[in-house]
Amino acid sequence: MNMSKIVRSAANLLFPFILVFGFYIVLHGHLTPGGGFQGGAVIATGFVLMFVAYSYDFITGCIGAESLHTTETIGLLLFIVTALVALGFGVTFFTNWMLDVGPVLNNPVAYGPNPGDLNTAGFIPVMNLAVGIEVLGALSVIVLYMLSGTKEEI
Amino acid sequence: MIELVVHAAVLVGLICAALLVIHFRDLLSAAIAFGIFSFLLSLEFYILQAPDVAIAEAGIGAGLTTAIFIVAIRGTRRMEEEVEE
Fold it and tell me: Which residue range(s) make up the domain with A43?
């Protein structure tokens, strides 16, 4: 069963802002406090807010546990494949290979106090994004399975 | 001076929220009080120069744990019953 209209309206209003803030934390993981896990937890909080506000049937009609499983798997695969590609360049596992290849994520870090540049740090932003996607899927699917056990007549 | 006042207010609020969690018989109110406790704890982490831990505490403690408690209350009873000795 759905929660009251007040809870549903507040959840609808807050959901996009929580998503934007979570992705901000993930993408600025190498510059500011936070990173993949914290940002993924914030995004998962937004999803869980919707899970609590709406009924289980409505949620599974919209998103489904299967797509959350897929999200988690995509995050893990992106993480491990990015680490494995380093072997193709003849260096060790988890070497930051993006520092040597192409202009992407490859700017030199400015000296002294500066606001920070997103286009730095090699594959660390990619790893943060992978961890964020993985944590988002994992924490959401935990609460979704908990919600599937509740009775519907309340 | 202002930092000291804010810090003391957060600490007093932490103790009050923790006492409220024990005091409430209504479990939904206790879950919300626990969410307030987690939020104040993340503020305390931020004051103590640990913004990384503060974000994790705000996301996991105030968001996910409260939601899990609310889901558990939806599956069981809302009011706590007196235990007979």
Answer: 5-148
